[in-house]
Design a protein that fits this description.
Length: 445
């Protein structure tokens, strides 16, 4: 790289990072998974307990990440923790996986859901969902390339609108939905599967860890990171409990379990069929927020890849004027557009992206918990502004949770999971090529 090398500087407030976390988590999942959770939980108390437990388990993970993010503030987030704990090879495979599978798959997944609901408002033909998904990726990537101000204020606006819309949904559902449908009989006990219900719950809570990738840009990170994570997860848990309570009151357990569009059915009950347009608009806004948050944080690890590996040095350019990694954002956008094409060819965009990302994500999430245990033991003298309470039990619980979800994602995954794993493995020759180029340069020097 030529010219003055610039690095990320603090430009994000607690509100900015909180909106990224909430926007990343509160996406399409809360409109898709409650029916699946209800059908596997068995009774109303278990449904609510599952969502509360999901919040508690997310809090456990957040406490682990708060220690890592305050002790090691870095734009690479989990990449940096894995590199310090396991070495550069594992770090590279993670950051390659995040660029080619995890984050770009998450961007595409959210964009496809946006496309599905935008198509209900204004269809664009046979490939309407794909066209909307591609347009969302191009538009939001462009906004983030323009500058950190454009990216973060877009996120604040989308998250605020989504939360306000969800609160309206809860309010209308509690006030106007007929409780008569709530008297339907509950599912028989032999149809319950609490473990599977928790898989769907924790998938819906996924995304709070994205705060780690902007730790180098958060003002007073050592004090504010824990605050961001605690407040965000408390808000998300509260919303999830309230909206599931609303679903249960308005539809009953049986009605909720059998629903293919639980929010739409609730609003039909409360306000009539004309409310379907409002629900589609709300879900579209929520998924745009998730897409933008994933674009914002994902590019930071691509930047870290360019900083540490000469083969990808073009990604490691930080624009000091816009305060964004413009090259990293551009490449990420191109990969996501390629995944839109993949989802279009399979004709199952959402399902393909879930299969594609889940096993790889949970494998490296498990490693991040192990990294905390290793780094605490290997670097005891390092200043740690925050330490996980009840150590080592909480990190061990976090590792167990991640391991279970890795197993579950492999059990239920389709062919998309195999493709995701193969692409991660394909990164190994690139690591060898990087090492070979490095040794050649050293010999020349």
């Amino acid at each position: 790289m030529s010219g003055r090398v610039t690095v990320p500087k603090p430009t994000l407030s607690v509100r900015d990072v909180g909106s990224l976390v909430v926007g990343m988590v509160v996406g399409a999942g809360i409109f898709e998974t409650p029916a699946l959770v209800a059908s596997n939980a068995g009774n109303t108390s278990t449904v609510l307990f599952a969502w509360l437990l999901g919040g508690i388990m997310s809090l456990v993970g957040a406490l682990c990440y708060a220690e890592l993010a305050t002790a090691y503030p870095h734009s690479g987030g989990t990449y940096y923790y894995l590199k310090r704990a396991f070495g550069k090879s594992i770090g590279f495979l993670f950051i390659w996986a995040r660029m080619s599978v995890i984050q770009t798959g998450s961007i595409t997944l959210a964009a496809f859901v946006f496309g599905d609901y935008a198509s209900q408002l204004l269809p664009l033909g046979e490939y309407s969902s794909s066209l909307y998904a591609a347009a969302a990726i191009i538009l939001l990537t462009g906004l983030n390339i323009l500058g950190v101000w454009q990216g973060k204020w877009t996120q604040v606006a989308l998250t605020a609108t989504a939360v306000f819309g969800l609160l309206l949904l809860i309010g209308f559902g509690l006030m106007f939905a007929s409780p008569s449908t709530a008297t339907a009989p509950e599912s028989p006990a032999d149809q319950t599967n609490f473990g599977l219900a928790m898989v769907f719950v924790l998938l819906t809570y996924g995304g709070w860890n994205e705060a780690a990738y902007v730790s180098a840009e958060l003002y007073q990170n050592e004090h504010n990171m824990l605050r961001v994570l605690l407040v965000s997860i408390a808000l998300i848990t509260g919303i999830y409990l309230l909206i599931n309570l609303t679903y249960l009151q308005g539809l009953g357990l049986a009605g909720m379990s059998n629903s293919e569009a639980v929010a739409t059915d609730l609003m039909d009950n409360a306000m009539g069929e004309s409310s379907a347009i409002l629900i589609s608009l709300l879900i579209a806004i929520c998924t745009l927020g998730t897409t933008n948050a994933a674009i914002f944080t994902g590019a930071r690890t691509n930047y870290a890849l360019g900083q540490d590996f000469s083969l990808f040095s073009f990604l490691g350019r930080w624009n000091d004027h816009t305060k964004t990694p413009t090259s990293a954002l551009s490449v990420q956008g191109l990969i996501a557009l390629g995944l839109v094409l993949l989802g279009t060819l399979t004709r199952q965009g959402f399902e393909t992206m879930v299969d594609y990302t889940a096993p790889v994500f949970w494998f490296f999430f498990l490693l991040s918990g192990v990294a905390l245990l290793i780094l605490r033991r290997r670097e005891p003298e390092l200043s740690r502004p925050f330490r996980v309470p009840a150590y080592p039990w909480l990190p061990l619980i976090f590792c167990g949770m991640s391991g279970y979800l890795l197993y579950s994602s492999l059990t239920y995954a389709g062919i998309g999971a195999l493709l995701g794993v193969l692409i991660v493995v394909a990164g190994a020759p690139l690591l060898w090529l990087h090492r070979d180029r490095g040794s050649q340069n050293n010999n020349t020097n």
